[in-house]
Write a structure and sequence with these properties.
heterodimer; A: mainly alpha; 2% strand; B: six-stranded antiparallel barrel; six-stranded antiparallel barrel; rod-shaped
Chain lengths: 162, 282
């Protein structure tokens, strides 16, 4: 939950982080995928639900569309995380690519189906966001996993110096 | 424990989450008609539930009312059957009345045409013995009837009165094997005697073999017997055979339907003063 809130906070404060013509990185989605592959499909979908609803509430869109997209993505990411080994950077990169594409498909598909918004030429933006999410996500995953060990090692080094 | 159970059923959780989102989205989105999707979907879904419920209720109510109505219909059906039977009886009565009226009208016409003193009578009984072709009428000596009075009907000659009592009389039909009447063939005026055969047909005797006789010729009373007035129809020649003797063997089909006799006229006019019946106007 904390990770989601941090991600949302970062997302809202780093909204100016733009890739190639207005495509932003979805840090919340990255967090949802991370939680899902670490904790399983149920936690993943719950994380996706909460994160998506908060994101929708903060955005000016329809409450629930982003939530549904992230719920499904969180669930499927959790299923993949339990079925396959996704600890290496490349599988995670691919997973984030697919997750972003799926999220965009659901999100834009629902908006288009409900005739609420139009997304002219969305493919380039989706691809850019997917690669951005994958790149940032893989790095973030490595950092998040590396950070606790780094802290432990620092603590152990201090203890040995004494 | 509950959380652990939920984790074992991710599909249910996913379904619940998606449903939650669908409801959320529907509550905010309007359809093309401007109504909220949630309202439309909820109303549509609930309308189906209502439709199904109503169908069940209607079915039960229909069965119940049908059963109750069936009981009512049963009694109504019985009443209607009774009414139909009553109406059928009344219709038959009306039909019989009409038939009787028609018969009486024909009798009246016959009476006027014959210009004879007659008494109308009703056949009240058939023959007591099948070997004797007789009927009983409801008029007797108190009405001025006497033996050997001719009995006629609109169709033709019926017979003669053989046994009058005070209020009823026995009539010997012309088809009785003991009955006879003077007759002539209308077309050729050849005379003979018509006699009953006992089998419902008549035979005409004493018609010379040289006489012109054809099937279909009309046979009428000649009046020479002193009983039947002249000119009344007896029947038509059904079969005529030259035979081996001096006379024709002629079978006559009676004009009167003896099996359906209901009303008859008894001719009271003495034979001496009888005239010739006029032919009916066609």
């Amino acid at each position: 939950m904390a990770a989601i809130l941090i991600a949302i906070a970062l997302q809202t404060t780093l909204a100016s982080l733009v890739f190639r013509g207005g495509t932003t990185i979805d840090l919340v989605l990255i967090v949802v995928v991370f939680v899902a592959i670490k904790s399983g499909p149920v936690t993943g979908l719950l994380a996706g639900t909460v994160a998506g609803l908060i994101q929708d509430a903060l955005a000016s869109g329809i409450l629930g569309i982003g939530g549904m997209a992230k719920t499904i993505v969180g669930f499927l990411s959790g299923v993949l995380g339990t079925q396959f080994i996704v600890t290496a950077p490349l599988p995670r990169f691919l997973l984030l690519l697919v997750a972003t594409a799926l999220h965009a498909a659901i999100f834009m598909g629902l908006y288009t189906a409900l005739n609420l918004r139009q997304f002219p030429g969305p493919y380039s933006g989706i691809v850019a966001q997917a690669f951005g999410n994958a790149f940032v996500g893989v790095i973030a995953f490595q950092l998040i996993e590396w950070f606790p060990g780094f802290v432990d090692r620092r603590r152990a080094g201090r203890f040995l110096k004494r | 424990m509950a959380i652990a159970d939920i984790r074992q059923r991710p599909g249910i959780v996913l379904g619940a989450a998606i449903l939650l989102h669908v409801v959320l989205i529907s509550a905010q989105v309007n359809t093309q008609s401007g109504l909220p999707v949630l309202q439309v979907v909820t109303f549509g879904g609930f309308a189906e539930v209502q439709r199904a419920t109503m169908a069940v209720v209607d079915g039960v109510r229909g069965m119940w009312s049908g059963y109750v109505a069936l009981r009512q219909v049963q009694s109504e059906n019985a009443a209607l059957k009774q009414e139909v039977q009553t109406l059928q009886v009344r219709l038959q009565q009306e039909h019989a009345e009409a038939q009787r009226t028609d018969n009486l009208r024909q009798l009246l016409e016959l009476r006027e045409r014959a210009n004879l003193d007659t008494v109308a009578a009703e056949v009240i009984a058939g023959p007591a013995d099948p070997d004797f072709r007789t009927v009983t009428i409801d008029k007797g000596s108190s009405d001025g009837l006497a033996t050997d009075m001719a009995v006629i009907s609109p169709a033709g000659v019926v017979g003669r009165l053989i046994l009058p009592s005070r209020r009823a009389s026995k009539v010997q039909l012309l088809i009785d094997s003991n009955a006879a009447a003077g007759a002539l063939i209308e077309r050729t005026r050849v005379q003979g005697v018509v006699m009953g055969r006992g089998d419902g047909m008549l035979k005409m005797q004493y018609v010379p073999g040289t006489a012109d006789v054809k099937t279909g010729d009309l046979v009428v009373t000649s009046g020479i017997d002193g009983i039947y007035p002249k000119g009344f129809v007896i029947g038509t020649i059904d079969h005529a055979d030259r035979g081996s003797g001096a006379y024709h063997e002629i079978t006559v089909r009676p004009a009167a339907d003896f099996s359906r006799l209901e009303e008859v006229l008894i001719v009271k006019t003495p034979p001496a003063s009888r005239g010739v019946v006029e032919e009916p106007k066609k």
